[in-house]
Amino acid sequence: MSRPTLIAPSLLSADFARLGEEAQAMQAAGADWLHFDVMDGHFVPNLTLGPMAVKALRSWVQIPLDVHLMMAPVDPFVAEFAAAGADRLTFHPEAGPHPHRTAQLIRSHGMRVGIALNPGTPIAVAEELLDGVDLILAMTVNPGFGGQAFIEQMVNKIGRLRRLIDVSGHPIHLQVDGGINPQTAALATAAGADVLVAGTACFSGGAQAYAANIDRLRAGSPAPSA
Ligand code: DX5
Ligand code: ZN
After folding, report:
1. pTM here?
2. Pocket, ligand 1, Cβ cutoff 6 A
3. What number does the ligand 1 atom closest to the CA of 150 have?
4. What is the pLDDT of residue 226?
5. Among the atoms of ligand 1, which is closest to the Cα of residue 44?
6. pLDDT at position 220, please?
7. What is the CATH number of domain 6-219?
8. Burial classification of residue 148, based on how many CB atoms lie within 10 Å of its CB (0-12 exposed, 13-18 middle, 19 or more buried)
9. What single-letter DSSP state applies at residue 10?
10. Is the pLDDT of residue 221 over 70?
11. 164 C-alpha vs ligand 2 centroid, how far in Å?
12. Nearest CA to ligand 1 atom 7
């Protein structure tokens, strides 16, 4: 249980008119990665940003850009995300008929590969892809929106994924995303997660609160009452 916990603030909760400054503030506050949510309006019922925004952000920070694709299809856009400067590309296996091919394509463009499992997606899907992925994302909400409540039944799934990864012997990150706050972060890390994505919990309180927000997530402790 001594693996370090990485914090990946989700820019979905940032001020979109000041995305570069927000990214810089999060880096200065101690973020390990920046999580960037791409939503296409039909794979999930919301619409956000694409490769042009990744490209615009790239020069503002040095930490890895962790791009979470909630879109279908994925393959035609992989090269564009790589050229834009994405370091990591995570996709949902339901996005196309050939997730193994998509994983290979992402890796062939020099990016780290992530596979995202919706709350209703069985872990067996990831089991078949373990050789070709660097990260498994266990969604702890149904994807599409920030600010949703953590689905507690997912703690058991996180534990099963941790055992799957450990047995595989591959150095695969186990990331969680959705409803992560200091309390749920503690549940997720105890179950085996090592990368925490958080939007609301990282960006609340404005830039002066970002470092403390990150520290509380890392420690898995509740915010002091005001
Ligand atoms: C939701 C996105 C998340 C979102 C999390 O579909 O994938 O990354 O930003 O937001 P919070 O942390 O507010 O639940
Ligand atoms: Zn996400």
Report:
1. 0.97
2. 10, 12-13, 35, 37, 68, 141, 143-144, 146-148, 177-180, 197-201
3. 14
4. 43
5. 6
6. 81
7. 3.20.20.70
8. middle
9. B
10. no
11. 22
12. 143
